[in-house]
Amino acid sequence: MLTLDQPALADLAPLAEAWQRAGADWARFWTKPLGAATPATDAAQATAAVQGDALAALDRDYAARSAALWRAVLHLEAGGTLPEVATPEPDDRRFDAPEWRTIPWFSFLRQAYLLRAEYLTARVNALPLAPRDAARAAFYTRQAIEALAPANFLAGNPAAQKRAMATGGASLMHGAANLYADMRAGRVTMSDPDAFEVGRNLAVTPGSVVYRNELIELIQYDATTPKVARRPLVIVPPCINKYYILDLGAQNSFVRHAVDAGHTTFIVSWRNIPAELGRLTWDDYLAQGVEQAIDVAKSVSGSRTVNALGFCVGGTLLASALAVMAARGDRSVASLTLLATMLDFEDPGEIGAYITPEFMASVAPAMRMGARMPGATLAGAFASLRANELVWRYVVASYLEGRTPPALDLLHWNGDSTSLPGPMFAYYLDSMYVHNRLREPGSLTMQGEAVDLSRIRCPAYVMASRRDHIVPWKSAWRTTALVGGDATFVLGASGHIAGVVNPPAPRKRNYWTGERNGGDPDAWLARATSNPGSWWPHWTRWLAAYKGGTRAAPSATGNAAFAPLAPAPGRYVHEAAT
User: Fold this and answer.
1) What is the pLDDT of residues 158-173, one digit of tens each?
2) Which residues pair with 510 in a beta bridge?
3) Are 274 and 420 in contact (CB under 8 A)?
4) Which residues are catalytically annotated?
5) Cis-peptide, bond into residue 569, ω within 30° of zero
6) Which of 100, 189, 412, 509 lies 20 to 30 Å from 523 when distance is taken between CA atoms?
7) Are 507 and 534 in contact (CB under 8 A)?
8) Residue 177: CB partners within 8 Å, gap ≥ 6?
9) CB neighbours of 414 closer than 8 A, spacing ≥ 6?
């Protein structure tokens, strides 16, 4: 491993001033175009002057702290360690190896990097930008900072160097093989690809495919209780990934939880769109997907109404379908559950950094002509939102340290992405992310009907996750004011996936509940009650009020009109993105 001995330190003195100047110049180069607008009024000029003073103060602080780090380097005694001028956040695991503190070279790299990262972040945050522009600037700045971390490079990673020496270079050979395999696959592998298989240890809840068209398979699950609710439960998962996020292993399957609670449960398995279906639209997803699933579930169960649940974009599709049905006077859905779903896209989270009018202008024409959105592109975009956790962590472990990725079912699912038809995806991005029209009554027409979310009058259970980086919880909160029925809001801990997939048995995490008085989410949270464990039993108790009575459990899936076509998990879930 590289070290800094005392003679080498003395030779570094001429570099100190150049290092500080380069850091400040880099930050000014990065941020100057962002704040280049010329003030047009005296008030704006005064504000710009104050902001200029703030930026100058940041420059002085960075120079002073960098100088302190360099003085510590230049006066370091043999065998000594550098004092801590900059320290990582408590949850930052990139610098856990002891060499980052005990070996001067690595201690210097770590602290110099953290100083520059903190300085550049503060400089961008101080710029006079509109909220969405500020969020976009902060996002791309963080991407650059995280990519340039010394731990991402062999020369700057003591743990990777130590492992290379301990294995006689074998770890580097394994890392090169991992890199080659990922280059061929077109993605960073996050989970051991041989550890899981759909139908073997994922998506194993027993059931049957009772309906299939060119877009979906509808799976009905076998009953596990002597009596079941009269109203069936129809689940609409996200179409961006495979449905089995809600039916992982036997111990963390939301589907199994619903079945064991006495609900005749159906789930939509979206197709991985092949080229010949590239022209499918948003309306097709409503008619052939959501509405068709509801109609089949009603027929099979013999109930005139169903309970419906949507997750992420599946929830957006479900709410859109219910708004269309409401416009037609169709009240087939007795209750609505939305998990980590956005209907108001005012604050779309960090994914909004990618979805801009300029982006849409560049990609929408091809998508509207039928070009598909590749699943790998979507997976990469979502992973980049948490690059340290979902990209660089695995780059370091797999390529620099030559380790086999861990066996984690959530990460296996995360890499099993699906391609989407261009017209459908372009409509979704443009109408909702860019123009936020779904929240405006009558602004969008779907299947020939002007949609108005307030006409969805059934009771709603709205669940969000506090650390969700895809659907910010305060955006999900706004759903409670958009739908027309009584809305119950529940806030889970953790993020977009782990917050939803939180089975009761381990009693992990917690969730918040409380009366929804007013429209301020922060005020709600301040009054809310924190409950230990999973929100699943709370939802089960809520849904019990809308089961419509009970009946004897069916002895088999399907009926005369919709006979079973194949055992679960069906055919479509096995189709890979092409």
Assistant:
1) 999 999 999 999 999 9
2) 532
3) no
4) 312
5) yes
6) 509
7) yes
8) none
9) 190, 191, 241, 379, 383, 390, 497
